[in-house]
Design a protein that fits this description.
alpha+beta; Thiol Ester Dehydrase, Chain A; six-stranded antiparallel beta sheet; 3 helices; globular
């Protein structure tokens, strides 16, 4: 398997959404390096912010009121450089595919211009009560497609 070439922050689409996070003491192993599962928790938090700020969909209402889940069906990461305690990072989700009941994101994590890691996430939309996959709701589909278009136009 070949490793991806790090992408500088400036190479991301200019209209892409960026969430920010600070690496805290509790996010790190004894060497002061981000413990790898913490990146997935930060990614989920960034996606929650992305839903509200960029897609105009209340992430919590989607789950709690509408009972539509957006869990990862697949998640992988390529680590390019360690994240360190005290780092300020930008997490940038880009929509790569919109399917029937799932969509895929590539999430870039940067410290300034340096890409620290790149995640490939496939999210399945599910009926939380029936615990089965359901089609992506029309408002979410439209918002994802619009964002994907804005990023492609940049």
């Amino acid at each position: 398997m070949s490793r991806p070439t790090p992408l500088p922050f400036a190479a991301l689409p200019t209209r892409a959404f960026h969430a920010t996070a600070r690496v805290r003491f509790g996010d790190c192993d004894p060497a002061g390096i981000v413990f790898f599962p913490v990146w997935f928790a930060m990614a989920n938090a960034a996606i929650e912010d992305f839903f509200g700020a960029e897609l105009g969909i209340d992430f919590h209402a989607l789950h709690a009121t509408r009972r539509i889940g957006t869990g990862f069906a697949h998640a992988e990461a390529d680590f390019m450089a360690p994240g360190l305690m005290g780092d300020q990072v930008a997490l940038t989700p880009l929509v790569t595919r919109i399917g029937g009941a799932s969509y895929a994101l590539t999430l870039h994590v940067h410290r300034a211009e340096a890409e620290l890691l790149r995640m490939h996430l496939v999210t399945a939309t599910t009926d939380l009560d029936a615990r089965r996959a359901v089609p992506i709701p029309p408002d979410l589909r439209a918002a994802l497609a619009a964002y994907q278009g804005r990023c492609a136009d940049a």
